[in-house]
Amino acid sequence: MAAGTTLTRHLIEEGGWRNDGAQDLRSLLEPIALAGKVLAREVDQAALAGKLGLAGDQNATGDMQKKLDVIGNDVVMDAFSSCSVVAGIASEELEEPVVMSTSDDARYLLCTDPLDGSSNTDVNAPLGTIFGILRRHRGGELSGEEFLQPGSELVCAGYVLYGTSTLLVYTVGAGVHGFTLDRGVGEFVLSHHDIRCPEAGKIYSANVGRHKEWGAGVRKYLDHVTEKDKPTGRPHSLRYTGALVADLHRCLLDGGMYLYPGDPGSPDGKLRLLYECAPLACVAEQAGGAASTGHGRLLDVVPGAVHQRTPIAIGSAENVALYERFMAEG
Ligand code: AHM
Ligand code: MG
Predict the structure, then answer these.
(1) Fewest 10 Å CB contacts: which of 43, 96, 132, 251?
(2) What are the backbone angles phi and psi of residue 312, rounded to the nearest 5°?
(3) Which ligand is nearest to the CA of 63?
(4) In this structure, is residue 215 part of a structural domain?
(5) Nearest ligand, CA 61
(6) Does some domain include residue 197?
(7) How many CB atoms lie within 10 A of CB 84?
């Protein structure tokens, strides 16, 4: 594809995806791109507009909401308000999924974390928007149970990373492509065609402040990667931004693994399966990487609830496979 390809042109030229039409893909990704542009501006201007700090409420999983969390959710919902193909949205910031369209064309469901890494909002550090699209298998009144599909059923997934630049990354099962926001012209422009995750990497990304709470398998894995062994490129280097999207993006480009395991107090860890881990696992696999709960493929896990958590290890396939071996040995 030629240099200077906008997301819109790319979506027209790339054509169809799996069994769905190219028009559907455009209908789904255009609101994501719009939300990404609006949120890039909101994040950029937040300190000047009095939009930093806490909003004062808790979200569905007990996190204190930041003002930007609430804004992020409103922006995504507004962007999809005129998208007739999305029947409903499940969001980290919504107690229950909400109905978006009752049209006969409403064949899809959106799962989203509108602003991931929100502890970073007040310190000018990276943030992300995560999205995953599932197919809706029936008509009639929308039920939250319709969202409880394994990540392997995602037909489209990706993220927007608000970092040193704003980057939209998506997959529909035909490679992973990244588009950088050109703020001057207000367009996402193709900058990362067919992202491939290195098979192995020397970065590990985890909140190691919690390592004493982790089980033997996780601790032994960390002991292994931090051990000096020149021939195998150890020790690995630690990189952790506090924003999963940014840390995963580094792993996708440079190789390595992001890790958020469970511990005795929270056996399923912190991150949510449906709208954080599964969409990113879909991107990682499509880029040639892997994602695991520590004991198996993350995309095979069927959620029991919209806000269900899961342990996750995601990134380079060899790193994830090695982690699973340490977890199996315990
Ligand atoms: P959030 O959705 O409330 O922002 O939480 C998810 C974030 C991830 O982006 C990040 O990797 C992790 O939580 C950081 O958690 P911790 O502060 O426990 O390291
Ligand atoms: Mg989140």
Answers:
(1) 96
(2) -145, 140
(3) 1
(4) yes
(5) 1
(6) no
(7) 15
DSSP state of 112: E
Amino acid 17: pLDDT: 60
Catalytic-labelled residue, pool 93, 187, 247, 285: 93
Please tell me whether residues 259 and 293 are part of one structural domain.
yes
Parallel/antiparallel/unpaired status of strands 176-182 and 187-192: antiparallel
Q: SS3 letters for 164-232?
A: CCEEEEEECCCCEEEEEEECCCCEEEEEECCCCCCCCCCEEECCHHHHHHCCHHHHHHHHHHCCCEHHH
For the cut 90, the answer to whether the pLDDT of residue 32 exceeds it is yes
Alpha carbon distance, N-terminus to C-terminus of the chain: 47
Residue 188: CA count within 13 A, CB half-sphere: 29
Q: Report pTM.
A: 0.96
Tell me if 271 sits within 8 A of 285, measured CB to CB: no
Q: Domain with 171 in it: what CATH number? A: 3.30.540.10
Specify the residue with its C-alpha closest to ligand 1, atom 11: 244
Q: Can you give the CATH number for the domain in which 265 is found?
A: 3.40.190.80
Residues 170 and 285 in one domain: no
Q: Which atom of ligand 1 is nearest to the CA of 209?
A: 19
Query: Candidates 57, 119, 266: which one to mutate for ligand 1, based on the most atoms within 8 Å of Cβ?
Result: 119
95 is catalytic: no
Residue 107 CA to its chain's centroid (Å): 22
Question: Which residues lie with the beta carbon below 6 Å from any ligand 1 atom?
Answer: 63, 92, 113, 116-119, 207, 242-244, 270-271
Domain that holds residue 242: 203-329
Could you report the per-residue pLDDT of 73-102, keeping only the tens digit for each?
A: 999 999 999 999 999 999 999 999 999 999
Both 117 and 234 in a single domain? no
Residue 1: inside a domain: no
Please indicate, yes or no, whether residues 229 and 118 belong to a single structural domain of this protein: no
Domain finish residue from 145, 170, 192: 192
